[in-house]
Amino acid sequence: MDLEVRHLRTVATVASLGSITKAAAALGIAQPALSAQLSRIDRALGGPVFVRDHRGVRPTPLGMLVLDRASTLLPAVDALLQDARRVASGDPAPTLRVTSAGSALAGRFVARLARGGATPPTLRAAGECCRAADELSAGAHDVVLAGMCGDALPPGTPGVHWRLVGTDAVHVLVRDDHACGDEADLAELAGERWVKGAGDSCFAACFLRACARAGFAPPTPSECDRATGLELVRAGAAVALAQPFGALPQGVRPVALRGAPLTWSTWLGVHDDAPEGLRTRLLAAARDARRDELAGLAARRRDGSETAAGRDARPAV
């Protein structure tokens, strides 16, 4: 038996549900038929993809390999089918597919691309830059906007062309009534509990090295999504390491770190075969989005300074 795309979808479904019974129901086939199909897949691959125990099924090392490859191949096949149907129907204007990996600039970037009545791109988030680059190379996306530690470089994935959008100083988000000013040395925050975004490449190690140079050893930073991190900051339970992009909720303000001990780079990845005109348009939109966000950050800091000055100028009562 030759391995087919439908077999990869079957393996992915079983792995995600962890149960033959649940997977059979999701796939709309009988459980014995699914078990027989998995046996044929095992024979085609030369070994078992799953092992069963009292908790259900879990992938073997062979199964993990198949799932890893399927996670790149299936989105690429779906993209192929989508594009083929578009061309067959005579639609000349495909929707640009944007993937964000560790960049808080993605929302502004997509908004920039949608200006002037252009069709808004689709946007999805990827947990890892390497995986997003592999999927871009396979044709599952048109562009990847990736964020990573300022000292890091994007993956050298064959078929992917990277351009630097910009490198910026990381700032710290604190509760509005925090004792530190709008600018602080990293050492001034030595006693804080820290939180950072999940999956931020080597950023945790870079942060710990910066703290060591500043003369202290912080607790290991917590990792969570942006919304949860902002809630922790607003509650006064932590301070957050953050890119200088994205709107902030009321009660949270940014603090610049003197000397910029930590930096964050934004990279734009496109396929090598992308037309030069598209590359130029994408890079311009990304750099314009970055410029807009940095201007907004500067304005928020000015407004915050004016508000603080107004409070200090009030007479005592």
Low-confidence stretches: 308-317
3D shape: globular
Overall SS class: alpha/beta
What is the level-2 CATH architecture name of the largest domain? 3-Layer(aba) Sandwich
Tally of alpha and pi helices = 9
Count of extended strands: 13
Q: How many discrete domains?
A: 2
Q: Could you tell me the mean pLDDT?
A: 86
| CA(first)-CA(last) distance | 86 Å
**Helix share, percent:** 40-55%
Quickly name the level 1 CATH class of the largest domain: Alpha Beta
Region (Disordered): 297-317
Pfam families: HTH_1 (PF00126), LysR_substrate (PF03466)
Domain HTH lysR-type: 1-60
GO molecular function, one term: DNA binding
Give a short summary of the structure.
The chain contains 9 helices and 13 strands.
How would you sum up this structure, described in words?
This protein folds into two domains: 5-87, Orthogonal Bundle (Arc Repressor Mutant, subunit A); 95-311, D-Maltodextrin-Binding Protein, domain 2 (3-Layer(aba) Sandwich), CATH 3.40.190. 44% of the residues lie in helices and 21% in strands. The chain contains nine helices and 13 strands. It has helices at 5-17, 20-27, 31-45, 61-88, 106-113, 129-137, 203-214, 226-234, 276-313; strands spanning 50-53, 56-59, 97-101, 122-125, 143-149, 160-169, 171-175, 183-184, 194-197, 222-224, 239-242, 252-257, 263-271. The chain has a six-stranded mixed β-sheet, covered by helices on one side. The chain has a five-stranded mixed β-sheet with strand order 4-3-5-13-6, with helices on both faces. α5 links the parallel β3 (97-101) and β4. α2 crosses α3 (31-45). The termini are far apart. The model is unreliable at 308-317 (pLDDT under 50).
